[in-house]
Amino acid sequence: MSKSLFVSMAFLLFAGSALAGQPYGLVIHGGAGNVTRERVAAAGEKAYRAGLEQALAAGYAILEGGGSAVDAVEAAVRSMEVNPLFNAGVGATLTRDGTHELDAAIMDGRTLKAGSVAGIQHVKSPVGLARLVMEKTPHVMMIGEGAEAFGKAQGLELVPNDYFRTPAQWEAYRKLKASQASPTTKDTVGAVALDRRGNLASATSTGGMLDKLPGRVGDAPLIGVGTYADNRTCAVSCTGWGEFFIRTVVAYDISAQMAYTGAPLAKAAQASLDKAMKLGGDGGLIALDAQGHMTMPFNTKGMFRAFHLSEGGTGVKLFGTE
Amino acid sequence: MSKSLFVSMAFLLFAGSALAGQPYGLVIHGGAGNVTRERVAAAGEKAYRAGLEQALAAGYAILEGGGSAVDAVEAAVRSMEVNPLFNAGVGATLTRDGTHELDAAIMDGRTLKAGSVAGIQHVKSPVGLARLVMEKTPHVMMIGEGAEAFGKAQGLELVPNDYFRTPAQWEAYRKLKASQASPTTKDTVGAVALDRRGNLASATSTGGMLDKLPGRVGDAPLIGVGTYADNRTCAVSCTGWGEFFIRTVVAYDISAQMAYTGAPLAKAAQASLDKAMKLGGDGGLIALDAQGHMTMPFNTKGMFRAFHLSEGGTGVKLFGTE
Q: A26 lies in a domain?
């Protein structure tokens, strides 16, 4: 055996039992609640595309390097949490009281372990906190001050609540207060990934719905509703009017259709979304199966979304007409 | 037409389109976490049986009178919330910090509307608050102070946190602190009902797991996990080590099996419980379908449980050997 071949083989082994021929990839969304040309015009379409590309690159680099799907979805979501254009972390929408309350979840499709947080006001990265709940507690879901005390004990960075505030979200809140119109911001950010070992993961993070009552929790942090991953079926992250997603348990319903009826991913995802939307509301979702198929259905004017698949190319899209 | 026949027919119409021949009934549980002869000995087996009978009677009377499944499950759960023997409301277990944080949910299988609360410290009836979230807000889930502020605004009774404390739960907490043993209290109370109009409903309420980190939320208030109801399939309420129920979305998984594979209720419920228990933990559940079939599987030594079915008799059971 030549020395270079030996080195190559050793590298492959070192890369950690990545499966030869195993497709991998990442799909992300930046919300489907209010993706209109008017909204996008303020910061410019380029800024939204760049934000999605940056989040996509952060997660995809991890997958390419042989990293885990869990690490990839966390990295992609963290990137959108610090981006003021998306309704998660910085740029979160406001509650009826003018405060920020953030929700997030993450799930590992290999182990079915999951972490979830809601009502977060001071932990800088809600998805990072959700990951620690998954890995450092016997629990799945933690909320409010208890969740933040745990995060603080774990050494996470705390910020004042107005760290999350942006002029654009404040303006939307002020306008809504003045007009008594219906809230339009119901965005979420999320990511689903398949890694080189064939493991799926999902993560979601959100500021929730504009003008929500303080204490309201949407679908994003609910395992099986806004976030789910199971290696045997798929990984899903939802966005939209969460109440309607909760009542039909959208993410798990997709997984269940695949498991119990053998439905392919895209068909199952569309059926589950349709079922929720029949009750009311609007929104969309992204999903990826263990064979690397993706789907990104939505019934809104647009959904910020991007994908990079080892066997399916890459793309960034905003509107429904693309 | 004779006058008496006319009166009878008018009464049937007045009873509100109750379906002739429609079976109806109620199944309740008072937890499966720690049902042993040792635990039951303290208050006496009779007291537990009387508590279950009282909750059963409160809910069944509503069904018999033509009332709704939603009203019946709320009444049954309220009865167990004020009973100090069960881990919900008065008698709730303690967090690691020695406080009480209560969770509850309710769901209407006719409309798929649902209400859910978590991290409740002062609202006397968590299930009553969940019902108001369902009926008086555009939301499904509310947590912590925001949920309590909403309850207060709705005129609900608030109590000091130690209203929920009982000597028995305090002693269990104190013993655990002294011994560093594993917590054994993971009980929940719940009810599922089918009314004379063929509508299903489910409700669950709990103090959660003894020694839980403050902020921890279990399966009980999560729609699709500890609580679910859909007229087309079934109504479910779970009890046990919630983290394992969350990861496999137990309640909705039962509904999904029935919808997608045509599995009968008992088979679907056992399969879903087995799937969760394969991951770890222990527990049980109660479920009822639209034809009035019930099932009450558990993998613990016992589960406080009782049923009254218009076409299936009535019974109260505590242990696995009954």
A: yes
A61-119 pLDDT tens trace: 999 999 999 999 999 999 999 999 999 999 999 999 999 999 999 999 999 999 999 99
Average pLDDT, chain A: 93
pTM of the model: 0.94
Q: Does the pLDDT at position B219 exceed 70?
A: yes
Of B142, B147, B215, the CB nearest to A142: B215
Residue at token pair 């069960």: B86
Is residue B16 assigned to a domain?
Answer: no
Interatomic CA distance for residues B226 and B235, integer angstroms: 11
Residue B254 lies in a domain: yes
Chain A residues touching residue B279 (CB < 8 angstroms): 112
How much is the ipTM here? 0.93
Restricting to A residues 77-96, those with a Cβ less than 8 Å away from any Cβ of B are 95
Q: How many domains does chain A have?
A: 1
Tokens of A28: 């992300």
The contacts of residue A210 (CB under 8 Å, 6+ apart) are A93, A94, A169, A172, A173, A176, A183, A184, A185, A186
B166 interface with A at CB cutoff 8 Å:
no
Taking the mean position of all CA atoms in its chain, how far away is CA A95? 21
CATH number for the domain harbouring residue A203: 3.60.20.30
- Mean pLDDT calculated for residue range A173-181: 85
Rounded Cα distance between A177 and A173, Å, is 6
Domain range for A197 is 21-319
Mean pLDDT of B59-88: 97
Q: Which of residues 144-163 of B touch A (CB under 8 A)?
A: 144-150
Please answer yes or no on whether B243 and A140 come within 8 Å at the CB atom: yes
Contact B105, B203 (CB under 8 A): yes
Cross-chain Cβ contact B213/A260 below 8 Å:
no
Match 């049902």 to its residue by tokens. B35
The answer to whether A239 is a known catalytic residue is: no
Q: Please tell me if residue B224 touches chain A, with a CB cutoff of 8 Å.
A: yes
Instruction: Report CA-CA distances (Å) from B99 to A82, B32, B163.
Output: 35, 22, 11
| Residue range A208-247, pLDDT digits in tens | 999 999 999 999 999 999 999 999 999 999 999 999 999 9
Over residues B28-47, the mean pLDDT reads 89
A188 lies in a domain?
yes
> Which among A150, A217, A223 has the least Cβ separation from residue B215?
A150
Cβ distance B131 to B204 under 8 Å? no
Question: Which residues have CB under 8 Å from A231's CB, separation 6+?
Answer: A109, A110, A198, A199, A200, A290
Contact B256 A261 (CB under 8 A): no
Report pLDDT digits (tens) over A270-312: 999 999 999 998 999 999 999 999 999 999 999 999 999 999 9
φ and ψ at B271, to 5 degrees?
Answer: -65, -40
Cα three-residue angle B266-B268-B269, rounded to 5 degrees: 65
Q: What are phi and psi of B89, to 5 degrees?
A: 60, -135
